[in-house]
Amino acid sequence: MRTLAPETFSDEFVGNLNHVERLLWIGMITIVADDQGRMQDNSALIRNLIFPYDDPVDVSRKTVEAGLEKFEHVGKIHRYAAGANGSGKKLIQISNWWRYQKSASWMAASIYPSPDGWVDRCRYHGKERIITMTNWDQPGGFLPSALLSQLPTPLPRPLPRLEEEEEEEEEEESTTTTTGKVFKVYESEIGILTPRIKDTIGDYLDNLKISPDWIIDAIHEASSHNKRNWAYCAAILKRWAVEGKSKPPSKEKPNTSKYRYKSVHETIGEQNNRAVKRVVKEMIHAKNRNDV
Questions:
Q1: Of 69, 132, 146, 154, which residue is most buried, by most CB within 10 angstroms?
Q2: 84: helix, coil or strand?
Q3: pLDDT of 191-240, one tens digit each?
Q4: Please, what is the Cα angle at 98 between 93 and 60, to 5 degrees?
Q5: What is the pTM for the complete model shown?
Q6: What is the CATH number of the domain that holds 149?
Q7: Are residues 147 and 177 in the same domain?
């Protein structure tokens, strides 16, 4: 999960940005960039990820492109093209990425190639649950050429497994399985799982300690009411936290046979039976009087 340094909002660079540029910068760090601070250099894609609900007239592609050019001009991002002679995909690298992510403990490798002179830092669980690291003990980022020449070839290297690490991995694997189940239900019942919603659900599970079963039930309830958005799911969870989680309605049909209306034929038949019994009773009384 990408983090945002507390000093971001007091930073002079951020303070001199307008509101759209400020949200653009924060969104690039927390939503668009991968674990190595890279992303596609596509202003339309970046706009749709950070400003999905804003009118294109208010926040246009040109507005985002102007913000990117401003960030590049002051050295906050590095725009480059992958491949030989820059003929490949256009990419963006956030220049001071590892200063912003200095508290990170796990970082996956990027699917995009790094720019020249850049050093990635990776620490993740590889095959057979082995912790794999690449340059994790290095500062990372753009380094002087003298330091680059001293770095080893960036090949992943496994670490010896300790009992504490094994227990931690088992706990993480269980958590990952549970979290993955919640994500799968969300995608099935609600829709696309954006990085923002993914981080929000993770926050509900890890920090707010909301039961995954509660989240899954809330997703089902939102879907049953055709309210396919996370805000509705969050409102359900908030209501349950205050009022208590109600039991799901029973699918069994109530037994109404005791209270059902009688048919016309049943009513007439009962009236006839009562009339016959009354006539028989009167005949018995008359016979008894005659005998006396």
A1: 132
A2: helix
A3: 888 888 888 888 888 888 888 999 999 999 999 999 889 989 999 998 88
A4: 40
A5: 0.50
A6: 1.10.10
A7: no
82 or 175, greater pLDDT: 82
Structural domain including 225 reads: 163-243
What distance in Å separates the CA atoms of residue 13 and residue 8, rounded to the nearest whole number? 9
Same domain, 154 and 11: yes
State residue 271 phi and psi, 5-degree precision: -65, -40
Return d(Cα 159, Cα 54) in angstroms, integer: 47
* Amino acid occupying residue 74: V
d(CA 245, CA 237): 8
Given the structure tokens 């770095």, which residue do they identify?
Answer: 151
What number of CA atoms fall less than 13 Å from residue 285's CA on the CB side?
6
Question: Which amino acid, 122?
Answer: C
- Token pair in block for residue 127: 């095959």
Q: Is residue 274 included in any domain, yes or no?
A: no
pLDDT at 28: 96
Angle (deg, nearest 10), helices 212-224 and 230-243: 120
- For tokens 């007239």, the residue is 57
Number of domains in the chain: 2
- Say if CB 122 and CB 34 are below 8 A apart: no
Is residue 121 a part of any domain in this protein? Answer: yes
In a domain, 76, yes or no: yes
